[in-house]
Amino acid sequence: MIRINLLPAQAIAQVSSKRKEIGLAGGIFVTALLVVVAAHLLQSSQLSEVNKTLDKLEGQLTTIRKQNQDLEKMERQKKELEDKLRVINLLTSPQRRAASVHVLDDLSSSTPEFLWLTEYTENRGVAQIRGKAIDNQTIASFARNLSSSPYFRNVEIRETQQEAQTIAPRTQPGKNAAKETTASSVMMTKFLIEAAVNYGSRTETAANVQGDKSTSSGKKEEEKKIPVKAATAAAASKAGKD
To answer: What is the pTM of this model?
Structure first.
């Protein structure tokens, strides 16, 4: 069959040109789409690698933090052990043992008559001394005696409290042994004294005390004036006679 092209040559050229443009546009679109897809795949791969690296670094950071906590704990334990060893060495040193004997000796020699010590405790160089006395003047005398010791400094009376001390009845010897004296009570004053304990050598501590006395005589006079309650010696004597 014979076909006859009735379109003019210019129209044929335009149709052919449009087909080429459409094909070129389609190729460009496909190419651009392939580029976008490839870029997306590349970014997804890079993001996945970054996430893996981040997870790895976070794991390492957690391990480092745990190791740091363990190290800090070991440092604290080391410091505690060093402090305990320092205290043990201090307590077991010949100087400390000798000083402890002198401290107890001065404590005993400073105790006046009609005063009895019931408790002595020491914590971090501060001693707490508890006891009973017949009156407040006796307690003040005891505090002054401690102040003159080279091993006790900053002696202060913290508490005083009066209480009745019951004396147990005594049995009269003899044939009529069943006869007993009646119980009596005496007013006593409980006290609490705090003082700083100095475990230096006796010569050094005595020199320091002497220097403090010469440079601060006014302050020493004030320390001697320890506030106490009114004396109860008359009441105690009367109760004792009863």
So the answer is: 0.46
